[in-house]
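Input structure tokens:
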């Protein structure tokens, strides 16, 4: 049997422990146990043993402010170049038609259309077959479906001026521009007449000074220049010009009437053209061609920055553009004027539409706000893109920057086509009759033509009866009709009755009646419905039709903003993981809780000493040292099983040893040293595990 080992403990050290044995051997007091290190109450690692994770440094995300100001160094020069390009395009549209750019584009389309490739019999047969099949399908759909017929024939009409102009065809846009240019030319280019707005040459300035003298007013100078330009053979001397200027007091519009007469028009006819330019495109084209390049004016006079944004326009630009897209136009001798083919007209119209779109009708401000930044963004994306994404990024960026040129007006038209479902069951002629009756009703009411509210309501019932469907609608068609009415409820509204008996201050009653709260909500709901439908069509239908095929062909484009967001998200995730690792021990939560509980119990034991019961251990046999017995100041520390009588004084002062300080080993227990060494190594490994993450 192994005799065991023992150690000595000084009596004073024993007494200073604060633990008293009063229960006999096996229920002894224990020495204080130090708290476990590197573990605190928050389960966080402390000291040099805590592991760390190195997070790679990521590029700082691109901020909106930095990106905007960083792009200005590209945007402003690019905008300047694009603006010069617009000026160059306008100059080449000026002058004699056959030498102008629109005519050259139209002739190019004619040559392509008349080439052998396009006149090949197989190509012609295929083109005719496609056209015939398309017409057959559309005719069948129209004859078999009220919905399709309504979408094709009926459409609501915008009432906002901006929306009206956005839906103009290229011909209508040019006719409307004629009115704008003519009014600016009459007023000297703006509300305040200024000779410089009419872009006089040095020779013209000298002529004005010679005719009127140095002290002439600005208005006299403008009218003098206008008369000379419209007919230089007639108004080439002071007598002829001053004779006209002297009549302005009696007839303020005399100069305007002379200009119109020289253009082949009169005031009444021009008023008709001005009221509905889209209806009189051909007539306006003839006026513009007669006015020629000398009727020129600056557009975009924004005070100090006017020279930066302004552009030059003249009547020959408008006339030449209109002539290049006209079908069946002839000259004064009755000869056909090119273009003679649809492709010729299409080429010129495409270029004109592109210039109209990228400049919002020709202005340089649109280039600065929309086009130049989009192109710069495309360039920066392409510069940072991987090699395999550069081509796709450039193509996609160009298409995205210019796609709204087509999608904006097309979305507007489709929106009003869908709104036209409110006329479901009505023919196109019936819809036009209703609109004419409604317009006449509004004019009569505005003039105070309904003396009583009953007369007003009776007239309205007559107008509204025209909207009655001529065909029976099923439940689905009724639902679509209601949807169309809902999203366009602010269009073609019934006006408020104007009481002709309210005069003076009482006339405010008519104003309040017209601004009633119901109309306010109808306008709000209608505008919201149309805008939602418009952006839905443009963003989710038309734009993907242009951009998605490009993605299929060239791959997904590179977007530096999207990549920066991804990097920022990845950095945030890694930082969150690092924070979580810093706050957690590498061991499991159960071990962490056990360590916290152990430390708490040790602190409580220090504050309030108590009897601690040591759980049973493996029996160890200690051999009493002879030196310990001989020394009165020490006490022998036996093993748990010893031969000391329990009723002796020596037993009452017995305490287990914390370490084997003095050991007497017999031959049979030499292996305990190896066991103890392995135990110490196990303890060290345990502390290591408690200080690391798993």
């Amino acid at each position: 049997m192994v005799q065991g080992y023992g150690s000595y403990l000084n009596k004073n050290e024993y007494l200073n422990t604060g633990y008293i044995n009063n229960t006999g051997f096996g229920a002894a007091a224990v020495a204080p146990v130090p708290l476990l290190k590197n573990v605190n109450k928050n389960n966080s690692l402390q000291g040099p043993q805590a592991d760390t994770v190195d997070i790679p440094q990521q590029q700082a995300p691109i901020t909106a402010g930095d990106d905007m100001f960083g792009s200005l160094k590209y945007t402003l020069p690019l905008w300047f170049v694009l603006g010069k390009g617009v000026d160059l395009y306008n100059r080449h549209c000026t002058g004699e038609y056959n030498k102008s750019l629109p005519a050259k584009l139209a002739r190019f389309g004619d040559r392509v259309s008349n080439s052998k490739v396009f006149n090949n019999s197989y190509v012609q047969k295929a083109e005719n077959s496609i056209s015939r099949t398309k017409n057959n399908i559309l005719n069948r759909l129209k004859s078999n479906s009220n919905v399709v017929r309504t979408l094709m024939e009926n459409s609501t009409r915008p009432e906002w001026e901006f929306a009206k102009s956005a839906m103009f065809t290229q011909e209508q846009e040019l006719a409307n521009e004629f009115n704008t240019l003519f009014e600016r030319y009459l007023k000297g280019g703006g509300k305040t007449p200024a000779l410089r707005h009419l872009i006089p040459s040095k020779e013209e300035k000298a002529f004005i000074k010679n005719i009127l003298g140095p002290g002439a007013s600005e208005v006299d100078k403008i009218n003098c220049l206008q008369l000379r330009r419209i007919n230089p053979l007639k108004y080439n001397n002071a007598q002829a010009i001053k004779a006209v200027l002297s009549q302005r007091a009696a007839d303020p519009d005399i100069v305007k009437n002379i200009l119109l007469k020289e253009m082949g028009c009169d005031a009444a006819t021009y008023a008709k053209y001005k009221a509905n330019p889209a209806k009189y495109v051909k007539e306006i084209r003839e006026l513009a061609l007669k006015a020629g390049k000398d009727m020129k004016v600056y557009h975009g006079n924004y005070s100090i920055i006017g020279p930066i944004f302004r552009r030059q326009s003249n009547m020959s630009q408008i006339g030449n553009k209109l002539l290049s897209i006209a079908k069946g136009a002839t000259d004064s001798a009755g000869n056909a004027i090119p273009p003679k083919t649809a492709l010729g007209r299409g080429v010129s119209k495409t270029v004109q539409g592109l210039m109209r779109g990228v400049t919002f009708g020709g202005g340089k401000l649109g280039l600065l706000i929309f086009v130049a930044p989009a192109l710069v963004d495309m360039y920066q994306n392409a510069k940072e893109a991987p090699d395999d994404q550069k081509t796709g990024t450039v193509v996609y960026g160009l298409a995205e920057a210019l796609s709204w040129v087509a999608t904006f007006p097309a979305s507007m038209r489709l929106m009003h086509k869908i709104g036209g479902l409110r006329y479901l069951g009505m023919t196109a002629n019936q819809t036009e009759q209703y609109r004419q009756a409604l317009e006449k009703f509004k004019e009569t009411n505005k003039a105070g033509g309904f003396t009583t509210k009953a007369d007003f309501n009776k007239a309205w019932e007559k107008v509204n009866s025209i909207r009655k469907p001529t065909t029976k609608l099923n439940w689905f068609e009724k639902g679509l009709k209601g949807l169309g009415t809902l999203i366009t409820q602010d269009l073609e509204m019934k006006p408020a009755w104007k009481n002709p008996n309210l005069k003076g201050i009482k006339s405010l009653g008519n104003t309040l009646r017209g601004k009633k709260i119901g109309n306010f909500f109808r306008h709000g709901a209608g505008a919201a419905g149309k805008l939602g439908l418009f952006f839905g069509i443009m963003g989710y239908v038309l734009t993907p039709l242009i951009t998605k095929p490009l993605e299929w062909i060239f791959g997904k484009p590179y977007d530096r903003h999207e990549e920066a967001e991804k990097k920022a998200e990845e950095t945030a995730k890694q930082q969150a993981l690092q924070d979580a690792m810093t706050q957690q021990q590498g061991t499991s939560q159960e071990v962490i809780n056990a360590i916290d509980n152990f430390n708490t119990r040790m602190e409580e034991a220090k504050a309030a000493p108590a009897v601690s019961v040591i759980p049973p251990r493996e029996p160890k046999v200690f051999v009493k040292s002879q030196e310990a017995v001989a020394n009165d100041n020490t006490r022998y520390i036996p093993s748990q099983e010893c031969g000391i009588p329990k009723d002796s004084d020596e037993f009452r002062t017995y305490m287990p040893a914390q370490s084997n300080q003095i050991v007497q080993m017999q031959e049979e227990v030499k292996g305990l040293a190896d066991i103890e060494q392995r135990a110490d190594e196990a303890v060290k490994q345990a502390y290591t595990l408690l200080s690391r993450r798993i």
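The two ends are 43 Å apart (CA to CA). The CA atoms of residues 311 and 363 lie 7 Å apart.
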